[in-house]
Amino acid sequence: MIEFVTSSRLFNLHTNHTTYQFLIDPNGFLLHTYYGRRCSGESFGHLLRQADRGFSPNPREVDRDRTFSLDTQPQEFPSVGVGDFRAPVLEVENADGSCAADLRYVSHTIRPGKYGLDGLPAFYGDEKEADTLEVVLRDPWTGLEATLYYGVFPQLDLITRAVSFRNGGDQPVALTRAMSACLELGRMELDLITFDGSHTGERHPCRQRVRPGLQQISSIRGITSHQHNNFVVLCQPDAGEKHGLCYGMALVYSGNFEANVEQDQFENVRLTMGISPWHFRFLLAPGETFTAPEVAMTYSHYGLEAMSQTFHRAIRHNLCRGWWKTRRRPVLLNTWEAAYFDFDQQKLLEIASSAAETGVELLVLDDGWFGERNDDYEGLGDWFVNPKKLPDGLTFLAEQVNALGMDFGIWIEPEMVSEKSRLYQEHPDWALQIPGRPSTRGRSQLVLDFSREEVWRGVYAQIKKVLESANIAYVKWDMNRSLTDVWSAALPPERQGELYHRYVLGVYAMLEQMISDFPKLLVEGCCGGGGRFDCGMLYYTPQIWASDNTDAMDRLLLQYGTSFCYPTSAVGSHVSAVPNEQTGRSTPLHTRAIVAMSGTFGYELDPRGLSQPERKQMRAQIEDFKRYYHLLQEGDYARLTDPFRNREFTAWQHTARDRSEALVSVVTTMARSNAPFCTVYPRGLDPDALYQVEGGGSFRGDTLMYGGIPLPQGGGDYQSWQFHLKKI
Ligand code: GLA
Prior knowledge:
The structure is a single chain. The longest helix is centred in the C-terminal third of the chain and has 23 residues, at 612-634. Helix 4 links the parallel strand 21 (362-365) and strand 22 (407-412). This protein has a nine-stranded antiparallel β-sheet with strand order 6-7-8-9-19-15-14-11-12. It is an alpha+beta fold. It binds alpha-D-galactopyranose.
């Protein structure tokens, strides 16, 4: 619910459990007053205290009063160059070379339903689910306008924000920083949690105390990156899974980004998030607009678990779209680790029939089926079947796979081109390259200039033909390098700073075209695994391959980190062969399956090599996954242990919303001799109800939660169990 209190010029954005408040001060500055637990809506304006602070300038209007300064007031969307020296959200280059933008309130509108953003991903909601507030600000001296968008989802306790800028003046203005949101949290002792890592080790939580000055994470790789995820948490230093206040903010975007946390001179904390200003310069001619991507944020008074569950629900129900949004996704077998580039029709058919016998529902032909793609040095850009490998084409292959009772899917990497390809010979200027400078290769390939419509449409025309040529139910959309040599043959020098963003818009445009042409196609995102694992991609691809690392023990860590924002239904996760390709570690098949079930679930191995008992086990795992699907994909997720701290075992839980059923998954991570007894403590059960523990007696909810479930002892490293609890 959104209310505007005319007498105090105050906005209250209420969700069921939170209130977000800001006001318009007498000079038209938007001052932020509160974000936290749900309140009546009475003004928090009395907390806006003023004092004469040295070196903090004062706007003209306040005349001889030196106590008001933008440098010390909590601002909703800070102006720049006129008195605020803290982390900016906006930087401009005006026609006269000045860098000031003084944004003052002009008007606002409130309406039912959630706003959308043209060409950009965004959470969505109808009139019953969400409301929109739009506040227009304007710099009276240049005419630059900013429209702040707020989407309020009461039941979800989620608030989204975005900004669009319009040059309402008669001179050009360049935006050199246009971030999406500023959140002022006042004087609070806080921890910052970021999700960091590397290729094959993504999204490991890193928690540190907010300290004076700036703490920042960012990506300038053109993608969200494996190194830092565009989701951050600020929480009380003693906040845990079930207690303490915390704020989460996610950027709904898939390109360069920056998140800044600043503790200022008076110990107030500001969080800003949006597109990275690195090589960002968006030129607005009079009348032109630029829209910064959305952020989604939530506040929880009851710890990190509630915060995560808010994001999980919102992503599942108000971000993911289309045919597959609520449908059970098929259990797939991907050929990558089974065959890499070394396959032909015969081998694929053998893998297919072997997979079908175990209950696999979708066979995915990964890299190598097209052009002259026999290794990763060539072929990208030539999206037509390689007849040497597949003499009867994809049509035949799909038919054969379908005849075995499975769906068929393929891998593509549309944004890339190999220099050894027909596409590159025909269109060398389609690649991002700086004239007169040798271009950098990444995985021996170049990046196509997706900022140009003719480029992505040219690639899409080829891919569309492929998708129409055979019964293709699934596509894995990959992207395997960071962007370099970012220069477009289609942009004038003064607009090259728009390229990173225009590239992302091109990717979104092609994805939108593809899912609207093929509405039943399941598209899985991928970027060398988890390099573009973000809310932006989830608007188009309801699941994303979480990492190129399929080792079950490493997956425990990165799936734990991923779960802080992203739901199980989004996490591409497969069982692969042992010893693991990335780590050389061997873990039991049972354990690999339990870990992969905390994701979309599938296999990434050659089923022909499995023994009869292993195949039997695989069949049973697929049955279990189907049996537990409603819990795994729709249930509330709880992290029962922190794998970075608990050396003995990692445990997590999926619980039905009505608490009638739960699945507790436990993996031991280190065997010890003469070890103490271990106990796992489920959460969120009905304390008064009786639960049947599958294969292990019945207990009351309170007994299970407060006494715990004893873990079996021994059995060696990496043992695992699933405890299925059902109310009786
Ligand atoms: C990337 C993906 C892998 C696989 C290969 C194919 O690394 O993350 O899963 O598809 O490309 O080249």
